[in-house]
Amino acid sequence: MLTRKLLLLLSLFALGLGIAACDDDGDKKNATPDADTTTDLAEVLDDVDVLDDIDIHDVPVDQTAPTISNIILTENPANHLSASLEFETNELATAQISISSATGHAWTLAAGDTFATAFAVDLLGFRADSAYTVTISATDEAGNVGTDDTSTFTTAPLPSDFPPLEVITAQSAAMAPGFTLFDVFRWVPTQQGPDGTYGLYLMLDNEGEVVWYYHPSHRPEDIRRLPNGNLLYNHSEHSIVEIDMMGRVIHEWYADRMGGTVPDGAIAVDTDTFHHEVAPLPNGNFIALSTEAKTLTPTDCPAYDADYLVVGDVIVEFVPATGEVVNRWSLFDMIDPCRRIDHGFKSTFWEQAYGGDTVPTTADWTHSNAVVYDEANNVVMVSTRHQDWVIAFKYADDTNGSSGEVQWMLGDEGNAGDYNGNNSFTLSGTDADWSYHTHAPELTKDGNILLFDNGNLRPGTNFDDTDAAGNADLPYSRIVEYSLDTTNWTAEQTWVYKDFMETDANGADIFYYAPFVGDADELSNGNVLADFGGLVDPHSDAIGSPVEKKYARILELTKDAVPSVVFEVQIMDPAATDFVGYTVYRAERLETLEP
Fold it and tell me: Could you tell me how far CA 210 lies from the centroid of its own chain?
């Protein structure tokens, strides 16, 4: 019926056009309908009277909801807090997944953004030891919605070797949104140094609940999200790995200059090592910390007491697709290898990579732990722990100089103004101080430098609580921000955070001290995520000793003059003896769990 009525209306429209049309001679002027046209129009109008009787329900619209079938929900064997979901629909549709537990933990996600009949989606964000209902909603091209709520998913408890996590506070409304991603490595009671066979990456939601983890069989280091949504991490001083959120290895890169065996499927990169940190560049390449070693003697450096195989850092840029190294910058070309022959210089950090009976004892000269590209200023910043400097060098040739030229050095003795002709920074700000054995500098949205100041060998501090100062001069760690002015050469301390553990009987504050690892990140709401990742008793500097308990605190701080703690989680074995130590190298806040 409707088709006939529509045809009548079209006929009426055509006749109307005929009235206004040209005559046979093409003359548009004074065109009028003839008698036949008038008669036809009247007949059509008579038929159109029936349109008053049209019922909209006569329109043949698709009102059938799509059906959902062949549902397969499979637990991820690498991470019991995630699952793979597959299903089909009987017609083209888009789909949405709603997940909820009886305790109110709920979220939704889209199963792609195009119409399809077959779907596969990774489900992320479950909490441990919980039962969930998984509801699938499918919407066809006509807007009909079909649902299926027959699927359930029950998660297992966290693995038995998970570290003890204590959430001290989680003020969700005051926190930056997202998920806190961090690594954990452990120290067992019978072993000097960390356990190289244990690794863990995990994420906490804004209530401090574990919602994701990945368990590699090696000690972890830095991890971060790539622009494609995958995660990139490095480990074991030779490997960089890209994984997806289900823990599937997508790519691997291996530093093969030392003669090791390149793993199957890995891309070889012509460099000695990979350590501490790797990051993507805007051009798609990776920039990473590597090393080289040179034998130096007391003749070369009079402060040396023997011959050493001196290990210095090299910054490499390479193409991920091929492993080709396109830039290589050595700190041996930038600073004096005879400087700073103390503290960590004789550590055994590089013995496994370079040591052996045929070479002198290795020396850990620079021990860099971070590399940051500052595109706006055409510099690369490197945090050199054992030199107590953040060094900035030119990334690419420009009108002001050549790639690799040192631009500035931030830190104690870097302000002398006479080192390689570099300009000096004058330190300013309330209670301003340089940073010592620094970790993880980063650029803030204002262009300032935010970093973790470990505080090793800070002038005026010591471990002796029996001297005249007692506990008042114990070492401490802090988060600090500097604003650099490279025109007037000032370094202003604009913000700082340090926290005391307790106050002793004499009224002296004893502050938290993390002599190794650590991180500080500016968050989307202006807060700061702080990782006091290597906490120890400030009365002792025996970092590697198994008798010294190691633990970590991850905090979110407001950036007030007196910061407030809006999130805090502590990772510590409560045992008084035979305890396991836990440390956290870095912590990040990801805005979303899904890529």
Answer: 16
Q: 300: how many CB neighbours lie within 10 A of its CB?
A: 14
| Number of residues assigned to the chain | 595
Q: What is the DSSP string of 422-450?
A: PPPPEEESTT----SS-EEEEE-TTS-EE
CATH of region 66-153: 2.60.40.10
User: Distance between CA atoms of 279 and 275, rounded to whole angstroms?
Assistant: 12
Provide the 8-state DSSP code for 193.
Answer: S
How confident is the model over 91-128, as pLDDT tens digits? Answer: 999 999 999 999 999 999 999 889 999 999 999 999 99
| DSSP H or E segment with residue 536 | none
Tell me, yes or no, if the pTM score tops 0.85: yes
Q: Where in the chain is the domain with CATH 2.60.40.10?
A: 66-153
CA–CA distances in Å: residue 10 to residues 7, 21, 271, 391:
5, 16, 76, 78
Q: Are 203 and 590 in contact (CB under 8 A)?
A: yes
Distances in Å between the Cα of 189 and the Cα atoms of 172, 300, 590 are 36, 41, 33
Report the alpha-carbon distance of residue 122 to residue 85 in Å, rounded: 6
Question: Which 8-state DSSP code applies to residue 343?
Answer: G
* 3-class secondary structure per residue, 55-74: CHHHCCCCCCCCCEEEEEEE
Q: What percent of the chain has pLDDT over 90?
A: 76
* Residues 6 or more apart whose Cβ sits within 8 Å of residue 331: 312, 313, 314, 366, 368, 382, 384, 391
- The one-letter code for the residue type at 571 is I
Nearest to 579, CA basis, from 553, 548, 541, 543? 548
Residue 187 neighbours by CB distance under 10 Å: 23
Per-residue pLDDT at 511: 97
CA distance 121 to 422: 54
**Low-confidence residues in the chain, pLDDT < 70:** 1-59, 356-359, 414-423
Task: DSSP for 496-521, please give it.
Answer: EE--EEEE-TTS-EEE-B--S--EEE
What's residue 357's pLDDT? Answer: 58
Residue type, 107: W
Asked if residue 269 lies in contact with residue 323, where contact means CB atoms within 8 angstroms, the answer is yes
Element holding 94 (H helix, E strand): strand 82-101
Q: How far is CA 247 from CA 80, 121, 315, in A?
A: 11, 14, 28
- In this prediction, residue 348 carries a pLDDT of 87
pLDDT by residue (tens digit) across 476-523? 999 999 999 998 899 999 999 999 899 999 999 999 999 999 999 999
Provide the b/e sequence for 206-215 (b: ≥16 CB within 10 Å): bebbbbbbbb
Cα–Cα distance between 265 and 55 in angstroms, integer?
A: 66
Fold of the 163-588 domain = Methylamine Dehydrogenase; Chain H (2.130.10)
The CA distance from 533 to 585, in Å, is 6
What pLDDT was estimated at residue 341?
A: 83
Strands 179-187 and 581-583: antiparallel
SS3 content of the chain, % helix, strand, coil (to 5): 10, 40, 50
**From-to residues of CATH 2.130.10 in the chain:** 163-588
